[in-house]
Each structure stands twice: as C-alpha cells, then as structure tokens.
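This week, look over our next protein:
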Amino acid sequence: MATLARRQGGWIGLIALLLALVIVALLGKTLLQQMGLFPNAAPAGTAARGPGVGLAPTDDTAAAPTPTNAVDRAKSLGQQMQQQAEDLDKKLGDK
C-alpha cells in the first residue's frame, strides 16, 4: 500500500499544479475584464451595448503612416536630439 501511494504522489502533485494554474488563469481573466482589456468584454461599470447602438464612423481616407515615414521621423528626432545636446554642451562650456 505504501508503494502505491508513492507512485501516485507525482500524479497528485501534477493535479495540484494544474488546479493552481486554473485558479491563476481565472483570476487573470477577471482582472483583465475589470480593466477592459479582455476581448469581447465590456469594462467594469459599463453596460453592454444594445443591437442598435454602434460606434461613430471612422475616417478610412486618412493614410496610415508608412514605415518609411516612421524611419524619417525617427531620423529627424535623432538629429533634433543631437542638436539639443550640442546646444546644451555649448551652454555648459560657457559657464
């Protein structure tokens, strides 16, 4: 009988870990629902919308920034930061 309990001790541990994982998952889901980050869930304190109520129409004509625009913006920001660093260095060097 003692050998039977030893052999099943591993299974009991695995079941306990699985149960703990399920509890953590449910708590995480509840937290995400309360924060409004869980998909298909309304944020806490708001009622679900009815079938006739919709979102405001979006403007699809506005072009999304392309990766090249983002790269150009990043380069100009780097140049601007470099210029500000040089200006600050000049100010501190004059004192």
